[in-house]
Amino acid sequence: MEMLRKIFSKSSILIPLVAIILGLIVGAIAMLAGGYNPILAYSSLLDKLFSTPYNLGEAIRAITPLIFTGLAVSFAFRTGLFNIGVEGQFVMGMTGATIIGVLLDLPWYIHAPLAIITGAVFGGLWAGIAGYLKAKRGVNEVISSIMLNWIALFLSNFIVAKFLVEKGQQKSMTVHESAMVKIDWLIKLTDNARMHWGTIIAIVCVIVFYIVLWRTKQGYELRAVGHNPDAALYAGMNVNVTMVKSMFISGVFAGLGGVFEILGVFGNQTVMAASPGYGFDGIAVALLGGNTPIGVLLGAVLFGGLSYGSAGMSFGAGVPPEVVRIVIGAVIFFVASHGLVKWFLKPFLNKRASKRKEAA
Amino acid sequence: MDVLEIIGQLINTTLVFSTALIFTALGGMYSERSGVVNIGLEGLMVSGAFAAAVATEYAIQAGLGGVSPWIGFIAAAIYGVLFSLLHAISTITFRADQTVVGVVINILSLGLSLYLTKSLYAGSGQTPLLENVFHKWQIPFLSDIPLLGRAIFTAYPTTYIALALAVISYFILFRTPFGLRLRAVGEHPSSADTVGISVTKYRYIGVLLSGALAGLGGATITLTTTSSFAHNTISGQGFIALAALIFGKWNPLGLVGAAMFFGLAQALRSFMQRFEFAQQIPAEFFYMLPYVLTLIVLAGAVGRSNAPSALGQPYDPAKR
User: Which segments cross the bilayer (chain A) (predicted)?
Assistant: First the structure.
């Protein structure tokens, strides 16, 4: 974990940048090996992203949940916890929002907030289970939250199929209009891209993340436990409670991500064969963002953009879109093994240094 | 069907499901005993399952017939080793965070396997169905024993290999100098280093063995259960294997027991639905069962201090 913190608190901008470039190169090599044209592929990726207002809007739609899940992973990391369960908390958030959105019929100013809060609390409590097990029973949060991911998936499927199902279909009934949080004028402006308030709230969450961790006493304790739990304990902080709290807040971020997928984008929840994957991508986003709120925002833009643009790659250059997963995996790999990156860079840096010497 | 018959089949299905878990958990054991956390087991299984599917297909094309699955099986181990080399280089030589690299292995394996599948098979997300996979062996004479014969002595060759490897691993780990050194490196690397044991070497061996064995685990699923590779061929078995490793207290025989337990939970999923009363229970609860059991077991039964003490810590000789 020591190492983990070091990577995450690294404010250096160089390593993520080099990692991104190396990641893109790895992707290009994979495409060359498969007999595809990487330049055509990358340009069709960019083309897909920026060609029409609709695509740009949809890219923002794809980026939004990654901001939430990236924040969720980062927040737990700051307290020294690896929340790999963001995936499950995301799904629980979706489920909470769907339950309220489908079953209740209220005026919009109560309905939407209630659905949002319910989903957020579902996510928070789901993460809280892993936090509690860690604090009370010493269960490694990585293992417990992996298990909770699967349980969340099947539990949600059960709830949707049993209580919310649209007759004869593999999805829930549609959420009442009063709970939806779409932004109509933006939808018109972007030719029906699915724009919603969740994006705005995601950016608010970026700010909240900063304020909670660096401008409150709570946040100080959270970070202290992350830095050195023994010292925190000695200073009179309740480490166990802090862990559970940290997981809860992390889960709230994750849950919110799920909430807006339902209330902003789809308007119903399907019976899923596998979980949507935003939580796992959140780990990538958090890592690339160096665990800082702004970094997470930028990381989400990069990964969301790549993932959304990958459809353009397969359309424009015939490349299987999975190549983007290789790029993303490679980028995190290079961020994590920054020793390797430095080793790669050494000849270049030395050359520059020696040139400088010559000039002098 | 009478009760004995059902029990026999249940045991047999348990063996089928737990085989892949045993291979993979054994792999995880070698890595973690040497002090390297391996969260990438899932990804290594994916790679193994993919490599087995492709290599077996090629072998069948080449007219190798019944030998083909064996070639796929071995190819999976080699491919797993190559993949885990990535893990080893970054975590041991460059001291990258082991958990993060494990996550990377998971992302990369699935991405690369699917990408290659689509590249190799004209955009199809699934490898062709294999004509030649492993068939169950009937051990002569023993398989004629009533009940036990059908339950235990009629099984895939992979099952016997996995069990044999577990026993061999037990002896390697606790009865050979190699095992002692591997454990020393995982418990107290600086002491091991002081007496002249190369921490780097033993950790490389541990991680690479985990790649080979997890590859075999993935291959087992392709070659005995699914007969092809697709995005959902491996869905969580690697993580279950990790849980079995912890539940089995990092002991080769303990983890076999744990893997059998999870295999049973999985087998129950398909078996319970045959009974009248069980049909009232929604299928989702059976799907959840292995994961819920894992959680309960981890929260309840396992002590805290069983993990190798240097687990997860990169070894930096300069910090001794």
Answer: 12-39, 59-78, 90-110, 116-135, 147-165, 195-213, 247-266, 272-289, 296-317, 323-345
Which residues of chain B are within 8 Å of residue A142 when distances are taken between CB atoms? 39, 99
Q: In this structure, which amino acid lies at residue A187?
A: I
How many A/B residue pairs have CB atoms within 8 Å?
A: 152
B46: domain CATH number is 1.10.3470
Cβ neighbours for B67, distance < 8 A, ≥ 6 positions apart = B59
Residue A8 has pLDDT above 50, yes or no: no
Nearest CB neighbour to B99, from listed A82, A137, A150:
A82
Asked whether the beta carbons of B124 and B227 are under 8 A apart, the reply is: no
Q: All domains of chain A, ordered by start, with CATH?
A: 2-347 (1.10.3470)
* Complex prediction ipTM: 0.84
Other residues' Cβ atoms within 10 Å of the Cβ of residue B93: 16
- Is there a contact between A325 and B108 if contact means CB atoms under 8 Å apart? yes
Chain A residues lying within 8 Å of B97, measured CB to CB: 3-4, 7, 336
Please tell me the pTM assigned to this model.
0.86
Q: Closest Cα of chain B to A294: distance in Å?
A: 21
Joined tokens for residue B223:
């070659």
Is the confidence at residue A81, as pLDDT, over 50?
A: yes
Q: What pLDDT score does B294 carry?
A: 79
Domain that holds residue B214: 3-319
Quote the number of domains for chain B.
1
Do the beta carbons of residue A120 and residue A126 sit within 8 Å?
no
Distance, in Å, from the CA atom of A256 to the CA atom of A272, rounded to the nearest integer, reads 19
Q: Calculate how close chain B gets to A36, using CA atoms only, in Å.
A: 9
**Residues of chain B positioned with their CB less than 8 A from the CB of A30:** 112, 115
CA distance to partner chain A, nearest, from residue B121 (Å): 11
Residue A33 makes CB contacts below 8 A (sequence gap 6+) with: none
CB atoms within 10 A of CB A208: 16
Query: Based on the number of CB atoms within 10 Å of its own CB, is A350 exposed (0-12), middle (13-18) or buried (19 or more)?
Result: exposed
